[in-house]
Amino acid sequence: MHIPDGYISPQTAGGLWALVVPAWYAAGYKVRRTLDARQAPLIAIGAAFTFIIMMFNIPLPGGTTGHAVGGTIVAIVIGPWAAVIAVSVALAIQALFFGDGGILALGANCFNIGFILPVTGYLTYRLIARGAAEGSARRWIAAGVGGWTGLNLAALLTAVVFGLQGELYTAADGSALYSPYGLATAIPAMMVPHLAVAGVVEAVMTSLVYIFLQRTNPALLQNYKTARAGGESRFELRPLIIGLALLLVCTPIGLLATGTAWGEWGADEVADEVGYVPEGMDRYAGAWTGLLPDYGFPAGEEGESLGEGAAETAGVVSVDAARKSAPAYLVSGVVGLALASVAALLSARFLFRGRQEGNRG
Amino acid sequence: MADGGMLPAWMTERPGGFEPGGPDRAVRQSALARTLLGLGRLARDTIYSEKVAARPGLMQGVDPRVKVAGVLVLLLLASLLRHWYLVLGLYLVSVAMAAAASIPAWFFMKRVWMFIPLFAAVIALPSIFNVVRDGDPLWVIWDFGGEVRLGPWSLGTSLAITQQGVRGAVMLVLRVAASVSLGVLLALTTRWNELLRALRVFHVPRLFVLILSMTYRYIFLLLAMATEMFTARASRMVGPASPREDRRFLAAGMGALLGKSHALSEEVYAAMVSRGFDGEPVTASRFRTAAADWVWLASTATLALSLLAGDRIIG
């Protein structure tokens, strides 16, 4: 699932760097609160562990082998935030010292495999294992489902990143500049093997390691819980996640709406409504076109791209253009939501810090 | 006495992958043998690349900060160029740089091409056909003589390789090869501790660099632990193990390694505290750039800018 350099455009790589840096910041802040100075050796050795177990060949039916990532089991033992840093460090070492996975694409790999995988894997585990006894079967099943979910969500994001290249970046003659497949090809091509094989390997190995630890080293599975109990703010992620899920489900509704959102007029629309274009607006129009202008994919060199129809007719969207730009709109929605949620997480963290310090003093 | 007459047949069968004389044939090996080989290869490659990095050479002499900056510029260039021959040119520049660093050319190319760019070629292969990605036909393989439909999907009127498809596939493979080549060049010509220190210049937080350097060291300790575990298992095995048994052993190995790692981190922490560590790492490195470093950076930047300008002028 590591994206090597050359498959994705520098714009995409940059965008994912912009997403992963706040995620690291949040993880670093969280870890500092729970682990103090102990964090450095724990995370370092957790990262080394992740690196090594990615090299373990797991026998699969049919005589081939695959490998596990182990992000979920690491998140269960050292905590999801420490795991974010540990897996990212392992990925950075693979890229910098062993040429495995791109250096420009490191931001993308760290966001998908280093952030999404351990965090969603851990949340799934917590959700299913809630209230289960320590040695119970529900716990190792939860760990396995967590491993499967985390890996597949990471794979899905990777597939979307690949698919966007095929949709967005085309040379003047129509040949692909980066990964050549669109979303409709990239997503099934990535997801079928991950849902059926790689995800299952991850699930089986996560469960087997969990069972082994339940039998031989149950204290290790309590490690993160003990660390958390040592005076930590309880920051509830659940309301945020439910809200985001609702928003995501509602995103397609935007496809039905026509016209322009209030307060988001372009210069030409202002001219239509008011009769003239304010001088300042005229000067700054076009200075910032946004990541995905008009919520469509940017037009290619020769205007061959998907967003063209929507951009040209400004307001009067033909059925054909609307159908064509629907995936672009949905992706815009998801990207926007991701950005918004990171911003929300960060601001919540700052607010929380203020409150907690107030309580202490 | 008949051969193996006292023993049941499964005991005399050899475990897969440990046949004398054939350890490099990865096809018919057990997962255990493959893992052991992989772990051994990692250690061997690392020692080799440290050796290369310690040799005198043009690339090794460049200040690590300058080198990291230069390689980043070239990597960015590799993903910005729009003409395949310019990307090929950039790849050849990286090969020339490797030669200047006294890395054997054959070894360098094998290291780069084995796997990642070859895999990119396999990935890109379907995209050269018109059924997958539309384009102007370059070579019609099969004229259907009318539109062929497969349920809701139209396959068009012929199966052909397209100009655009071939160009896109060549572009992807070359881009990937040039990028991997530059990355491997950086890794091979820079000692790991210098590379880590160079990261400080790019405002990577100190704690992050500390964790990276600790991780790097502990990878080799865990590598040794895992190798010992697998060697012990392999040397006790009588007859081949079933994949199911192998999976259980590997999972137990991971669990045991996780437990050992955790215990180790507690000990390391205690050792660090007893030596005065208070959570803030201190580094004592001072880099000094020489005129040669600036010449190197200037020529890299000039190369990058002229290639990029050429790319945009050609259109």
SSE layout and pairings?
The complex is a heterodimer of chains A (361) and B (315).
Chain A: H1 10-35, H2 39-53, E1 58-59, E2 65-66, H3 71-78, H4 80-98, H5 106-129, H6 137-168, H7 183-216, H8 218-221, H9 223-229, H10 238-250, H11 267-274, H12 279-284, H13 308-313, H14 319-360
Chain B: H1 9-12, H2 31-54, H3 58-61, H4 64-80, H5 84-100, H6 105-113, H7 116-124, E1 137-143, E2 149-150, E3 153-154, E4 158-162, H8 163-189, H9 192-201, H10 206-236, H11 243-274, H12 291-314
Antiparallel strand pairs in B: 1-4, 2-3
Helix pairs in contact in B: 2-10, 4-8, 4-9, 4-12, 5-8, 6-8, 7-8, 9-10
Write up this protein.
The complex is a heterodimer of chains A (361) and B (315). Chain A is mostly helical. Chain A folds into two domains: 10-232, Arp2/3 complex 21 kDa subunit ARPC3 (Orthogonal Bundle); 237-361. Helices cover 68% and strands 1% of the residues of chain A. Chain A is built from 14 helices and two strands. Chain A has helices at 10-35, 39-53, 71-78, 80-98, 106-129, 137-168, 183-216, 218-221, 223-229, 238-250, 267-274, 279-284, 308-313, 319-360; strands spanning 58-59, 65-66. A two-stranded antiparallel sheet of chain A has the order 1-2. In chain A, strand 1 (58-59) and strand 2 form a beta hairpin. Chain A starts with 9 loop residues before the first helix and ends with a helix. In chain A, 45% of the residues are buried. Chain B has 315 residues and is mainly α. Chain B has a domain at 205-283. Chain B has helices at 9-12, 31-54, 58-61, 64-80, 84-100, 105-113, 116-124, 163-189, 192-201, 206-236, 243-274, 291-314; strands at residues 137-143, 149-150, 153-154, 158-162. Chain B has a two-stranded antiparallel sheet. A two-stranded antiparallel ribbon of chain B has the order 2-3. Classes of the chains: A mainly alpha (361), B mainly alpha (315). Chains A and B meet through helix 1, helix 2, strand 1, helix 3 and helix 4 of A and helix 2, helix 4, helix 7, helix 8 and helix 10 of B.
